[in-house]
Amino acid sequence: MAMTLATRKRLVTALLVGPSAAWLSIFLVLPFIAILVFSVGERAPEGGYQAAFTFAQFMNLPARATAFWNTMLLAPVGAILCLLVAYPTAYYLAIRAPTRFRMLLVSLVVVPFWTSLLVRTYAWIFILGARGLPNLLALIGLPDVRLLNTPGAVLLGIVYGYLPLMIMPIYVSLEKLDRRLLEASADLGASPVRSFFNITLPLSLPGVATGVALVTILLLGEYLIPQLLGGGKVFFIGNALVDLFLQSRNWPYGSAIAVTLVSVVVLIITLAMRLAWRFAGTRQVDLV
């Protein structure tokens, strides 16, 4: 019996979507289910997981309140600081930069990703350490300035490490902007500032929402920057998870924290998409 056109389309769709769906199921859905099962279990006497059904691990979340507080405070602040630096940069690249140099400048934004984040973070340890900026500040009469192992050092590392991830989505939104809208606004007598707030900024909000959500989500699980630039004094949830899984071997408690973290990530994605749809007036929002 000949295969109908509709059946062939469904078969082709299944063949195209099947590999990615299987990949996500094996490496995303199944691990999350395992973490969810661990979160309602108990810690075995020798460490690890022991089968049980209890919500005691979730009730004990306040014991790691410092890590939650630092993450929920510094992650959004870091994302906002990235946005404040990234938007003017992306605006210049997409609107003001000469066309012949634009790709070169965009490539320079991506260049830091060619070097390991670990190496770049260690560079900041030297810059912020006693032989770096504090030494220079002491020469101009500002002794005993401690920059390393502070929340400010962590925020600086966050902005430096995640800035390209904020710039690129905003750049894509601005690069797609129809220049005729700005020309029409100018012809109607609007000032450049008014054109920016009435045209450029609203149309770039999907890129802003994508960048903020992407950076914030990654920061919620950040481990390296707080560990190195915070010196063990600025704990993030990622640091707490490493301690619970690898050192304390309290898998159920770590799983409960991980499940809570995933719930916060889903909430952030939902809010970011709704805000982008509301202010930009479009549902064509690409959240990575």
From TrEMBL:
Transport found in the keyword field: yes
ABC transmembrane type-1 domain residues: 68-272
Main location: membrane
Stated name of the protein: ABC transporter permease
Keyword presence, Lyase: no
Organism encoding this protein: Pleomorphomonas diazotrophica
Subcellular location: Cell membrane
Lineage: Bacteria, Pseudomonadati, Pseudomonadota, Alphaproteobacteria, Hyphomicrobiales
One cellular-component annotation, GO: plasma membrane
